[in-house]
Amino acid sequence: MRLLLFDEAFLGHHAIWMEETLRAVREIAPHVEVTYAFPYAFEDSSGHTAWREPTRHHVLRKLQSLTGRPWLAAEKWRSLQRLVKKTQADRVLILFADEFLHPRYVPHVSFEWVPIYFHPRFLRGDPMQPPLAALSAPSCPFVYVLDEGIRQALSELTGKPVIKIPDFCPTECGPATPRCHALRLAADGRPIIGAIGPLTRHKNVGALIEVAKRHPEWHFLLAGLVFPNALSDGERKRVDEAQQMENVTCFYEYLPHEELNTLTAMCGIQFAAYRRFLHSSNKMVRACVYRTPLVVAAAGCMGEMVTQYRLGETCDPANVASIEAAIARSLMIEQKAADWDGYLAANSLESLRRSLTPL
């Protein structure tokens, strides 16, 4: 059998997912011929096919968004068919499959394909149209999801197996950096509430900055690249204002994983009370590694997991008072009560290997 692992993007967790999945498949199925289509090769470049999303896809993405017609999805499937013909693959694992799945498009292909469906928001109350026709296609033998809470419902709707695949991320800590030293000095013994990662609209940093104004006894960390076009005017104003606040440390720049993890380990609370973010996040893995309680939105996958494993507190992300109350409760959490190791075991690289066995 020839297996193709496919992804078009290369930033952030895309490369991590591809490299770890490739390594896992080769370990558990050494007899399977594996190729991978990705913008660049890893250290083991055998079987690599260079592939990057064509520029025209950005135009089709806008056109599809404006019209609702599957312009982008159809073109993605045409591109994938050409790639499968080139690599002579029998089965494809589409690592980030969401844009291949459109409610008005059914792929008719000669190969088997298995999607990792990252954002099945329609099963979490989002009004989006579900791509059930695509997922029910005979060429798709089963589906992977990260959200255990919707797995059974999606299986019943598609009439096929749906398998939980773990969320994961690098957890290695680097040495303390000048930024770490600056944060420790600024906090001056106060508990640190961290919002770590790219600052975009759904991250809800505007609400967190409002909490910071009310609580000088806490210190706040905002660390990650700012995407101004992805913030509202009010949020951009608050993000700028935060740089002048005595109890907020801002590192508005790219952070390598090792430093990101070191900063995470310094925090007393991880803030992840995102807006309209109904799916999983690997931020929970980092929080568990460093025993850092989380504050998350009550609705969605993260709220369920935090409650199930007792990893922190939930709140209404649209309500500043609810957020500050959840932070206060999280600072009082008894560390031994949380099932940090249980969540880590469910989202480990060993768990990834078990999930990939059916592939």
If you had to describe this structure to a student in words, what would you say it looks like?
The protein is built from 14 helices and 13 strands. The chain is of the alpha/beta class and 359 residues long. It is globular and about 60 Å long. Helix 5 (151-158) links the parallel strand 6 and strand 7. The chain has helices spanning 13-28, 56-67, 71-87, 132-135, 151-158, 178-187, 205-214, 233-242, 257-266, 283-289, 301-309, 320-330, 340-346, 349-356; strands at 2-6, 33-38, 48-50, 91-94, 112-117, 143-145, 162-164, 192-196, 219-223, 248-251, 269-272, 294-297, 312-315. Helix 2 (56-67) packs antiparallel against helix 3 (71-87) and helix 7 packs across helix 12 (320-330). The chain has a seven-stranded parallel beta sheet, with helices on both faces. The chain has a six-stranded parallel beta sheet with strand order 10-9-8-11-12-13, with helices on both faces. 40% of the residues are buried. It is 39% helix and 16% strand. The model has no long low-confidence stretch (mean pLDDT 93).
